Amino acid sequence: MKIGILSRLTPLVLSVLALSPLCRAQPRVAGDWQGTLTAQGAQHRLFLHIAADKDGSLTATLDSVEMHVNGIPASAVSLKDSKLTVTIAAALGTYEGTVNQDATEIVGTRSDTRSFELNFKRAPAQSAAGPSGHPAAQLPATFWDSPVWKTAYRPDLPENEKIAGLSRFWLEVKYNFAWLERLPNDFDWDALYASYIPKVRATHSTLEYYRVLQGLCARLKDGHTDVSLPSVLSDEVYATHPCARAGSRAVR
Asked: Of 19, 34, 62, 157, which sits most exposed with the smallest number of CB within 10 A?
């Protein structure tokens, strides 16, 4: 009788033992990780949060300090032996890394159209919440969007406002443009910025100034990034000719 019971229990015990390495491995990688992605000279601080479910499956979210975005969900997360794969199409592409024996570091690469080295280390307790734990997150909203930028429209803006606007556009692209890695290797955004300062200074109207900014924006070759005209200029530049409007009514 005892032998019969043991024979029925043995497969169950073996199956539990077979699953044990996986169940132990998944929680090893669970937790909060921080890393810095360097692409085209710009640095992006990232926080990767990995959670292990009761069944051993993994989920993950990503926070970006520079982009002020938290909780970008991963569409797929897997850990086989020490090989971690995380797919976040909206921000990271595919990340493949190797978890070290002590589970204190992940060494790997982030791949989309190009590959960049990206390593993670365990995040300190105060940083575990991602960007919200970073001192920059405690700054008031006016630090990121000061009222100084909200100036009245004038047919020809002062030169200092033109230079300030050019500088702000350069900064936004340098730290927040999503597709810098898709630009040519010799693309030098800083050099372009410097070359456009005299062009901005040479403008004699606000419209001419915006046209120069739009020309700089076009160098990014991205249809989702643009420099929009103020409503006053937009109505003027894109207005329909009265004759065209009259003709349109006549056709109806």
From this structure: 19
